[in-house]
Amino acid sequence: MASTKLSPNPVEYEITGGYWNSEYQVKLNGTTVYHVENKSPTPDKPKIIFFAGNSTDGPIVGSSASIGFSSDIQITLGDPGLPKTVTTTKLSKKGFMSSRYVFELEVDRQMRTFSWKDTGLNESYGPTGSHKLVNEADEIMAVFSPGGGRVKQDGALYLHVDLGESFVLMTLVTALVLREKVRRSGQGRGDTTVIPSTY
Q1: Domains, the chain, ranges and CATH?
Q2: Which of 1, 70, 118, 153 has its CA 20 to 30 A from that of 30?
Q3: How far apart are CA 187 and CA 134, in angstroms?
Q4: If you write DSSP's letter for every residue of 34-86 in order, what string do you get?
Q5: pTM of the prediction?
């Protein structure tokens, strides 16, 4: 598979929170592009809903839901109420002791596999560590640096590639799903290493 061209200047999506992590705002260049409702009942069943714009008045564009007793999470792009317009995939943990989560997505008419991995670093002021999204060649596609412990500033996603709108949204949805799994399960570590925007 051909190497993916990486941008030397990643695009930054700022994640801000309110009401103690029950909702988020995803901002690009200071403008809210997605409002996110967090309805996760338990750490192992993250349930989040993405709305276009800055409130729940916008259309649903992405969501997550648990799959029975499985540890897999179903990710849906589009409005579940309009099944003919949606794309679904699974975010799956690879191994019982692994911190790696994998999903597949069609990019340029080709099914691709992407993996979220722990960077081994932690974002300052928060208990949850950062994660990097890599492709099949282990090239970094994005880095998610979650704040975890703060109410008004919950981190950022740095996107290093331009693979289309669906990829951007899938990356954001899976990043917040992973954040909820780690944050609510209390698996974060306590150091205060500041995460840079390049890795």
Answers
A1: 11-185 (2.40.160.200)
A2: 118
A3: 22
A4: EEEEE--SSTTS--EEEEESSSTTSPEEEEEEE-TTSS-EEEEES-TTSGGG-
A5: 0.82
